[in-house]
Amino acid sequence: MAETNSTNDAVRVGTQAQEVAGLLIGDIISGRLSQGSRISEPELSRKYGVGRGPLREAILKLEGAGLVVRAPHVGARVVTLTQTELSEIFAVREALEGMAARLAATRMSDQQLLDLESLLKTHASHIHEHSGQSYIDQEGDLDFHYRVINGSCNQRLIRSLCDELYHLIQMYRKTSGRRARPEEALAEHQMIFKALKDRDGELAEMLMRRHISRARREIEQFIDSNNQPMS
Amino acid sequence: MAETNSTNDAVRVGTQAQEVAGLLIGDIISGRLSQGSRISEPELSRKYGVGRGPLREAILKLEGAGLVVRAPHVGARVVTLTQTELSEIFAVREALEGMAARLAATRMSDQQLLDLESLLKTHASHIHEHSGQSYIDQEGDLDFHYRVINGSCNQRLIRSLCDELYHLIQMYRKTSGRRARPEEALAEHQMIFKALKDRDGELAEMLMRRHISRARREIEQFIDSNNQPMS
DNA sequence: AACAAAAATATTGTAAACAATTTCTATGGC
DNA sequence: GCCATAGAAATTGTTTACAATATTTTTGTT
């Protein structure tokens, strides 16, 4: 009768190291492990119930993703994003995701476009109902961008954006209780969608770049207004 | 005297894992470990004279860089680049390095520009002397691109390009004995340099994108002409 | 002889013990 | 009272041994 594994999770999907890496990523991008937190091997080893070997592998993986930084003989910490680094991330994201939008305009299937359209409708109704709060804002935004990125059909591009940059962006969003602007974002998403539907790659790229550039400026502004009273 | 370390290398700079990772990268991008080669832990553990722990860490690191692929309980292999993957890499490189050129146009110091100019002069004389062969072609090309990338002053961009994409490109260049076209490349480098010197970011980006796009088409052509007789 | 199944081998994944380095703490001197 | 230094504790780096999985070889059957 449903003999479970050693952990109370579902059946083991891969190796312990992979599982712990997933848990660690979740703890970081959810904010349970805040920026700059020490990653103690013995402590987390006990917490996750695995040996130090698999845990070290997980840490190594996260280091490759840029979520933690390590110093020899000193240990690992959750990365601390400065404003400069966050701006750099968004600058790279702008170039990469602009390219993704351009490719997606010619490569997305009709079905993918229909799905994207219904996603936007769902998002719109949620905004009207709850007058622009709730989790759907962050998640919906992510969902839209993930679909466009995947629509590019460029595996390397997908990996760079989803496995590296977006983890960092999610981490920042959670740790800084910044309020998004769902109405404006939705309007921009709808314009991007129209360009995709029209198979207009140039326009899709330009709109996506402006969309991300706008988000970057908001963040820079937010940080500025928050750093001031902390001095 | 000069009491050396356990290995005959210079003094240990970091940890064994880091050192082995460097050696592994060297073996891969030099072609000593060709594409698709098995990465046997016991074998390489003996070869490099370290335990399996540090070697595994090195493999993990290379997996993060995209140089090796791992399968659970099966092992690691040097990545095999298909034409599709190579095209994808160059597409991403085009977007990223175009951005780097645009940023470099406004951010490179006058001294950096002078150094870049002298590098191009050195490169030109080498081509005229040896009529376009010798190692300087590959190395010189890399050197030029590295300087422009670093001129962007965007650390994340630098890391993406130098630590991930360029390793893969170097690997491909070595394993496929493809001949470069140093004269054409130099001419294009000189045009890019002029745009940088004029602080014309838009032009620098466009020229860099065309330069890389051209290289991509050459590679695609080369692969096509090589894959045909192998069918 | 060819195929399938089962045992043997080898390799990877994991845990535990040891070594080396760093960090914290306490003691002594100024 | 403060700083420097020496020792102790804790953590990371590394090796070794063990367990689990995959691959290969062997053996038996059709």
- Unreliable stretches of chain A (pLDDT < 50, length at least 5) are 1-10
- The oligomeric state of the chains shown is homodimer
* CATH architecture descriptor of the largest domain in chain A: Up-down Bundle
**Approximate strand percentage of chain A:** under 5%
Radius of gyration of chain A: 20 Å
CATH topology of the largest domain in chain A: Four Helix Bundle (Hemerythrin (Met), subunit A)
CATH superfamily label of the largest domain in chain A: GntR ligand-binding domain-like
Number of domains of chain A: 2
Number of beta-strand segments of chain A: 3
CATH class of the largest domain in chain A: Mainly Alpha
Give the N-to-C terminal Cα separation of chain A: 60 Å
Structural class of chain A: mainly alpha
Largest interface: A-B, 27 and 27 residues
Please, what is the average pLDDT of chain A? Answer: 88
Task: Output the number of helix runs of chain A.
Answer: 9
Major sheet description of chain A: 3 strands, antiparallel
- Major beta sheet, strand line-up of chain A: 1-3-2
Topology order of chain A in helix (H) and strand (E) letters = HEHHEEHHHHHH
Shape of chain A: globular
Please give a structural write-up.
- 2 copies of one chain form a homodimer.
- Chain A has 231 residues and is mostly helical.
- Chain A folds into 2 domains: 77 residues, Arc Repressor Mutant, subunit A (Orthogonal Bundle); 143 residues, GntR ligand-binding domain-like (Four Helix Bundle (Hemerythrin (Met), subunit A), Up-down Bundle).
- Chain A is built from 9 helices and 3 strands.
- Chain A has a 3-stranded antiparallel sheet with strand order 1-3-2.
- In chain A, strand 2 and strand 3 form a beta hairpin.
- In chain A, helix 4 runs parallel beside helix 8.
- The radius of gyration of chain A is 20 Å and the shape is globular.
- Chain A starts with 15 loop residues before the first helix and ends with a helix.
- The N terminus of chain A is likely disordered.
- Chains A, B: Keywords: DNA-binding, Transcription, Transcription regulation.
- Chains A, B: This is GntR family transcriptional regulator.
